[in-house]
Prior knowledge:
nucleotide-binding; kinase; two-component regulatory system; alpha+beta; ATP-binding
Amino acid sequence: xxxxxxxxxxxxxxxxxxxxxxxxxxxxxxxxxxxxxxxxxxxxxxxxxxxxxxxxxxxxxxxxxxxxxxxxxxxxxxxxxxxxxxxxxxxxxxxxxxxxxxxxxxxxxxxxxxxxxxxxxxxxxxxxxxxxxxxxxxxxxxxxxxxxxxxxxxxxxxxxxxxxxxxxxxxxxxxxxxxxxxxxxxxxxxxxxxxxxxxxxxxxxxxxxxxxxxxxxxxxxxxxxxxxxxxxxxxxxxxxxxxxxxxxxxxxxxxxxxxxxxxxxxxxxxxxxxxxxxxxxxxxxxxxxxxxxxxxxxxxxxxxxxxxxxxxxxxxxxxxxxxxxxxxxxxxxxxxxxxxxxxxxxxxxxxxxxxxxxxxxxxxxxxxxxxxxxxxxxxxxxxxxxxxxxxxxxxxxxxxxxxxxxxxxx
Length: 410
């Protein structure tokens, strides 16, 4: 498994969840405010203005000079209006309001709103830095602008609690939004993975069907080719020979159509494990019928089977042996016509099943057939998927050999 195959495992996605960005974290404002944006902004402005009015009343009770009170009110109103800019410049606004609220308590409500918005829209590091700045300013404010009813220590504790509440609440909202985003990404990733698994399953099914069609139809079509070629080059053959060749062609065409119909029927089946076809799947027990069919077609084949009871061989293993012998006989018919082919099968439970198909060198030159070699590649893949192995190549006498070993559990 690589990170390029699974992009959600990249370092950016494995960072601390508190540092992950959310939509809107970089200060991009929507072109048009939604109804929800207007409601939230109005509530935030009213909250900041309400805290400011309470601070104005406290300043009036403390008999603050009118000039200072007027300046505080103007600065406080500007701070409340600045709340509308918290989405675009949350860091700068929080820093400015933290310093301003230290000298102008009326701006304290705007500071709490800006800290909340900052904690919602920014990762942990800037929130921690500006939160510390706000705490320092909150502790220093009672000593610079003391309140008559509270001691500086009590005012400082109240300011620290309010700053921590606003920041903590904002971080809680951010964590919830991150959870929602993570769940959405996980659901999207699960859908993507399911789609990829479905595509992979379809691809594997198509490859399996293609291999099965090649193994089945190539054998039948070579019989048609051999006997059709004999009729073409022997137009003066006796009627009995012509009738026998025509019968083989008819039977092979019929068998090919039935095999093709069965394979295509797999695509139309509702489930994958559908074995109730019109004819049973070939196994090791039907290997003799395959050899006999090729003998009737004119091949010379010697079958040496050392398996006492072919019915005891697992169906999947027997079917693989059948396909290997079928493809090897097809290749021998194409590349070594007239040569005697020897098929040897042996083995037992626990030791595995061995099959070997060997033919001597052809009597004359053989023309290469387009697509030669693809069947052997398919056989190698089939044997590997079955847990075995397959080797093939020329023999010292110029012939050809295909040998395979397949597991046979005890």
